[in-house]
User: Fold this.
Amino acid sequence: MVDPIKLKRYMKERKVVPLMDIVNHFRAEQSVLEPMIELWIKKGKVIRKTGDGACKGCCKCDPATIEFYEWLD
Assistant:
């Protein structure tokens, strides 16, 4: 199980981090991490971003590779 505080430290340190990096760093399933990330989103500490402006919505990319989270403080 991933500790939400360790997730906080990792995200805060990286500032902007792709979902896939979080998955790989913690060696956890995306479905396990998403509720913890949502906790920080609800607290106003994190925002979700998708793509970098280059995404045209073709749906060929794995969503985890174009989904980013930004720590706000």
Notes: Residues 30-42 form the longest helix (13 residues). The helical segments are 4-14, 19-26, 30-42, 63-66.
